[in-house]
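Supplementary Methods. Inverse-folding protocol.

Structures were first reduced to a discrete structure-token string of length 326. This string, shown here, constituted the complete conditioning input.
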């Protein structure tokens, strides 16, 4: 979602050079953002303070002569590196005493900018200047050689329509559509002579095994399990050739949207109001029961109605609509 900021910066100054410091695992994403000229591994673990290490890193950047730093995380520690790098203008939203480190520290305007992408993009503009209403959507560009290499590596073909499913969610079970529902969706797609590719991390292997156990064995050869087998770069490039993507509220949902894939997003305990998938063809499935969104990792009542009431037919109809519109 930070790509909205990079796109806005390039609109304002097409000749500016953008270097992004981010966690190592995000670098494949940055490699597929045309606006990013260079990327740097942040080097710090999640939640790690590392005061002396941040000071050393900041000082090592002084020779690079960066003129402007925009700090997206809201923590105090995230503003330390640009401070120690002596970068002339250091911009970010106010929080955690960051005004001591940022010399362009802005008062949050959450009502004016309800979406995270709006808050990111607003930092490209002077504080007294309103950004355009139409914030550019994220747009990842897959690498052609990467696509071919990944297809060859996993023995995949693109001779028929491909439906990607992403059954995992790091947040917890309250964001995971039941495996039997994914299996019913998959069987319906396979019966229409489509392929099904399953994406996810190694943490999603149990959920995937449960799905595969319910797949019609006569069609199992067209259901390809990529869970825990691909790198993020390979997952991005492979997802770029799919027909449509059905996903829980997860990172892969946003990757699919940024690849301009038609997406069906399934929302249980969470809400798309703050961080919706940003694409032209998006169908969001959610119930209107009184207890959602609760934003809990596990259902407080034990019924998971916010997910179980989203029947497979809803996703099947949505995917078929995308498929028929091709």
């Amino acid at each position: 979602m930070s790509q909205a900021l990079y796109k806005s910066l390039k609109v304002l100054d097409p000749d500016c050079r953008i270097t992004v410091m981010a966690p190592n695992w995000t670098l494949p994403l940055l490699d597929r953002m045309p606006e990013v000229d260079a990327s740097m591994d942040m080097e710090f673990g999640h939640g790690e303070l590392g005061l002396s290490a941040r000071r050393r890193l900041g000082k090592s950047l002084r020779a690079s002569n960066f003129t402007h730093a925009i700090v997206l995380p809201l923590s105090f520690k995230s503003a330390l590196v640009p401070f120690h790098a002596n970068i002339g203008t250091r911009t970010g939203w106010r929080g955690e005493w960051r005004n001591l480190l940022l010399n362009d520290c802005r008062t949050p305007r959450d009502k004016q900018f309800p979406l995270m992408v709006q808050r990111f993009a607003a930092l490209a503009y002077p504080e007294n200047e309103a950004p355009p209403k139409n914030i550019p959507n994220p747009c990842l560009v897959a690498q052609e050689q990467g696509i071919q290499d990944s297809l060859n590596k996993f023995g995949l073909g693109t001779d028929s329509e491909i439906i990607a499913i992403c059954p995992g969610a790091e947040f917890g079970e309250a964001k995971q559509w039941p495996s039997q529902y994914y299996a019913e969706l998959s069987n319906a797609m396979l019966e229409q002579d489509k392929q099904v590719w399953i994406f996810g991390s190694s943490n999603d292997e149990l959920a995937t095994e449960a799905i595969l156990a319910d797949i019609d064995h006569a069609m199992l050869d067209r259901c390809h399990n990529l869970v825990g087998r691909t790198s993020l770069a390979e997952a991005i490039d492979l997802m770029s050739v799919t027909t449509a993507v059905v996903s829980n509220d997860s990172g892969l949902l946003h990757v699919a949207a940024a690849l301009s894939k038609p997406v069906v997003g399934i929302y249980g305990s969470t809400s798309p109001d703050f961080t919706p998938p940003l694409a032209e063809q998006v169908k969001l499935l959610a119930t209107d029961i009184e207890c959602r969104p609760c934003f809990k990792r596990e259902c407080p009542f034990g019924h998971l109605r916010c997910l179980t009431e989203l029947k497979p037919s809803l996703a099947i109809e949505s995917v078929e609509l995308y498929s028929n519109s091709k």
